[in-house]
Design goal:
It is a single chain. The protein is an alpha+beta fold and about 170 residues long. It has a single domain, classed as 3-methyladenine DNA Glycosylase, Chain A. Helix content is about 15%, strand content about 30%. It contains 4 helices and 9 strands. Strands 1, 2, 3, 4, 5, 6, 7, 8 and 9 form a 9-stranded antiparallel sheet that branches. It is globular. The protein binds a DNA duplex (12 and 12 nucleotides) through strand 4, strand 5 and helix 3.
DNA sequence: TTAGTGATATCC
DNA sequence: GATATCACTAAA
C-alpha cells in the first residue's frame, strides 16, 4: 500500500478530486484499531470565485485552512451536528480543496466522519504526516462519473451547475 | 417535508 | 449581544 504523498495533493483540485475516487481512507483509532474505507464520492471547491467555496466569502479564521499547503485536513461542523472533512489541494495561498463526500459503505459526508470518528481535532492536521488518518492507493483501477455538487443552491446558477462532483462506478 | 443543532459571520 | 445561515441526516 502506498500512502498518497505531497505530489498527489499538490495539483489543482479538479485533478485531485477525481483521482481520490477509489482510494483508501485509513483511520487508526486510539486503541489501535484500523478502519479502511474506499472513497466513493468527492467534490471540488475551487478558489474565491467559486461561490460554493467557503473562501468566496472572504478569508476568515474558519476559511484560513483553505489557504494552507496541500495535504492539510479541513474539518468543520455543519448544521450544528455534522462534521465534514476536506483535504487541501494546489498551491498555498490559493484557496481550494476536495470534500470527501462518501465511502463505499457510508453514503454521506457526515456519516463518513462519524464512522471514522473524525471531528474538529483533525482540523489543521495533514494527510501527509498524521499517524491517525491518511489515504492509500491500493492500485485497483476504477471508473467514475461526474455530477453537480450537492447542497449549494445558494451558489448561483453558474457555480451550482459545475460538474465538480466525482462518483465511483460500482 | 421537516425538525434538530451549534459554530460562524455579520450586523448592532 | 443578537440574528441569520448552513458543503447534513433521520424520521415521517
Amino acid at each position: 500500500m502506498k500512502r498518497l504523498d505531497e505530489a498527489f495533493f499538490h495539483r489543482d483540485c479538479l485533478e485531485v478530486a477525481p483521482d481520490l475516487v477509489g482510494k483508501i481512507l485509513v483511520r487508526r483509532l486510539p486503541d489501535g484499531t484500523i478502519l479502511r474505507e474506499k472513497i466513493a464520492e468527492t467534490e471540488a471547491y475551487r478558489g474565491t470565485e467559486d461561490l460554493a467555496c467557503h473562501a468566496s466569502k472572504g478569508r476568515t479564521p474558519r476559511t484560513e485552512m483553505l489557504y494552507r499547503e496541500s495535504g492539510v485536513i479541513y474539518v468543520y461542523l455543519c448544521y450544528g451536528m455534522h462534521y465534514l472533512m476536506n483535504v487541501i489541494t494546489g498551491e498555498s495561498e490559493q484557496p481550494q480543496g476536495v470534500l470527501l463526500r462518501a465511502g463505499v459503505t457510508h453514503n454521506g459526508p457526515a456519516k463518513l466522519t462519524k464512522y471514522l470518528q473524525v471531528d474538529k481535532r483533525f482540523n489543521g492536521d495533514s494527510f501527509l504526516t498524521s499517524e491517525e488518518l491518511w489515504i492509500e492507493d491500493d492500485g485497483m483501477p476504477c471508473t467514475y462519473h461526474t455530477d453537480v455538487r450537492v447542497g449549494i443552491d445558494y451558489a448561483g446558477e453558474i457555480w451550482k451547475n459545475k460538474p465538480w462532483r466525482f462518483v465511483l462506478d460500482q
